[in-house]
Design a protein that fits this description.
Layout: H1 3-17, H2 25-46, H3 48-63, H4 76-93, E1 102-110, E2 134-147, E3 152-163, E4 166-180, E5 183-192, E6 198-208, E7 211-222, E8 225-237, E9 242-250, E10 255-263, E11 267-276, E12 281-289, E13 297-305, E14 308-318, E15 323-333, E16 336-345, E17 348-357, H5 362-434, E18 438-447, E19 460-463, H6 465-470, E20 477-479, E21 500-507, E22 510-517, E23 522-524
Parallel strand pairs: 1-17
Antiparallel strand pairs: 1-2, 2-3, 3-4, 4-5, 5-6, 6-7, 7-8, 8-9, 9-10, 10-11, 11-12, 12-13, 13-14, 14-15, 15-16, 16-17, 18-19, 18-21, 20-23, 21-22
Helix pairs in contact: 1-2, 2-5, 3-4
Length: 535
């Protein structure tokens, strides 16, 4: 809005809410409160500095400490830089309180006895009639980050593994320093009970805006001597969504690898080729991302090499705000059939690889595919959906309780504003009727229930006919892209729920109707809103 538009709106609202225009003590009190609010808003918006702060950061920017030391007559860009500086200072004060914990728990299950039975060898053994399902391996790892300064971070990580009764563990400490906007370096020290001390160095560097390189050097000490290792990765952005990688690994399991990864809003595609000792392979994989609220993804891959051929397919879906559940079926020669279940909960990962059979059995593939789907849909319907619904209701109730006092005050202000608008609205209607202009017949704001499946839900709307008519000027009504709850005479009747504005209006003697979501812009009159009365 220009300064002239602001002045015009300020004058109009001052005339509407001026206390001297109202003799009734209650209306006069309401008018004084609303008049003061209008004056406070104009003070912010008429000052170039405070308006720039409000335009960029809203009320939280005005309430932030430190603005009193900012030199006046600064441009919006300079004010943005100052705000970001103050934010950085606040972040640094909270730096010591923040860690970034990450963890993985993997439990390997041997369920081959379900499909590969050797009954003839164990007919006389008690309990042999029931399949034996065993946990044959486990892996647990955890890491935390401790920011030391704005550029230095300490990382502590550890892991424990066991397989078929044998296991071990290790602990690592790393110190990372961001050397510039283009790169960082990391020193790593580690030790374990199965292997000796480890010393490593990692370097990252942006060579150009579209190209970067990472290098990882390591020295592993053991009873057999020192085993060095070197891994270098060169990556380049081929276009906005595609990255190409070249990797060279020397030392333990030396190999050369090249891959191309294309990631878009709806898909993820990877093709890779590796030549190495002992593994050489070719890989192609594709993942489709559905644009739904649950962020559903389906994926498939084919991997072939000296070790054999593996086909893998699966899906993953968001089951709550912080949890993603996925499952994949792996079918290969000579690996057999496996089912892999993974749950990501915030920064924690739980992985359950279940080996079903060493052979290619159609029954194993069928049950590995259908079983998880049946279990998921049953759990989603009986457990997950009711739980999420209860959580949403709980959060809404908590939000309503925390804002109850504020909403009550807003409601009282809105009702007072409507009473103060009555005289002005009467004059506006008379003027519009005289020229067959825009008359708001009825207007409602809040939650409408149109879906028959949600008929048990309660409609929560308020009548906003008078406030909308008061905003009509020269037979036009224009509302910008923002929540309508902040308009004069409005308030939020259903905190935390989706809201709409429904308007029935008359223009040139013809009825029109329109319904718009809360944050969408609205311009009336429009020919498309006309109600067809031919029938």
């Amino acid at each position: 809005a220009s300064s002239e538009e602001l002045k015009a709106a300020y004058r109009r609202l001052c005339m509407l809410y001026h206390p001297d225009k109202h003799r009734d003590p209650e209306l006069k009190s309401q008018a004084e409160r609303l008049f003061n609010l209008v004056h406070q808003a104009y003070e912010v918006l008429s000052d170039p500095q405070t308006r720039a702060i409000y335009d960029i950061y809203g009320k939280r920017g005005l309430e932030m400490e430190g603005w009193e030391v900012v030199e006046r007559r600064r441009t919006p860009a300079e004010i943005r830089e100052e705000f970001e500086r103050l934010q950085r200072e606040r972040e640094e004060r909270r730096l010591q309180q923040r860690t970034n914990p990450k963890g993985t728990i993997s439990v390997g299950v041997d369920a081959t006895d379900l499909f590969d039975r050797y009954d003839e060898e164990y007919e006389d053994v008690s309990g042999s009639g029931f399949p034996q399902i065993e946990i044959n391996k486990m892996h647990i790892s955890q890491s935390i980050e401790a920011p030391l300064t704005a550029t230095d971070t300490a990382i502590l990580s550890g892991s424990l593994s066991t397989q078929n009764g044998n296991g071990g563990g290790s602990i690592n400490f790393a110190l990372r320093r961001v050397t510039s906007a283009k790169g960082w370096g990391e020193l790593e020290f580690g030790a374990g009970d199965l292997q000796g001390p480890l010393f490593g160095l990692k370097l990252f560097r942006n060579l150009t805006p579209r190209c970067f390189v990472t290098t990882n050097c390591a020295l592993q000490f053991s009873s057999r001597g020192i085993r060095p290792g070197l891994t270098t990765v060169l990556a380049r952005n081929l276009d906005k969504n595609t990255v190409g990688y070249l990797q060279w690994r020397w030392g333990i399991q030396s190999a050369m690898n090249t891959s191309i990864v294309r990631d878009t809003k709806t898909s993820h595609f990877t093709v890779a080729l590796q030549l190495g000792i002992p593994h050489s392979f070719a890989l192609i994989s594709y993942q489709h991302k559905f644009q739904d609220d649950d962020q559903t993804r389906v994926k498939g891959s084919l991997k072939a090499g000296f070790f054999g051929t593996v086909v893998e397919y699966g899906a993953e879906r968001k089951i709550s705000r912080h949890s993603v559940l996925g499952a994949a079926v792996s079918v290969g020669v000579p690996q057999g059939v496996s089912l892999k279940v993974k749950l990501n909960r915030a920064s924690q990962t739980y992985f359950f690889p279940i080996h079903l059979t060493d052979q290619l059995l159609p029954s194993a593939v069928f049950y590995a595919t259908v079983g998880p789907l049946v279990i998921y849909f049953a759990m989603h319907r009986l457990i997950i959906k009711p739980y999420l619904r209860a959580q949403k209701e709980k959060e809404l109730e908590k939000q309503r309780e925390s804002t109850a006092t504020d909403i009550l005050q807003k409601k009282q202000e809105a009702e007072g504003a409507v009473r103060l608008m009555q005289e002005s609205v009467r004059r506006i209607i008379e003027a519009e009727e005289s020229r067959m202009g825009l008359i708001i017949v009825n207007a409602w704001y809040g939650k409408f229930v149109n879906d028959k499946s949600k008929k048990s839900e309660k409609v929560k709307v308020i009548d906003v006919t008078v406030p909308l008519q008061c905003l009509v000027k020269d037979s036009k009504l224009i509302l910008t892209e923002a929540s309508k709850a902040g308009l004069p005479g409005f308030y939020d009747p259903c905190v935390g729920e989706e809201k709409s504005l429904r308007v029935l209006y008359q223009f040139r003697g013809v009825l029109h109707q329109v319904t718009v979501p809360d944050s969408e812009a609205l311009r009336i009159p429009k020919q498309s809103h006309r109600i067809d009365t031919d029938g």
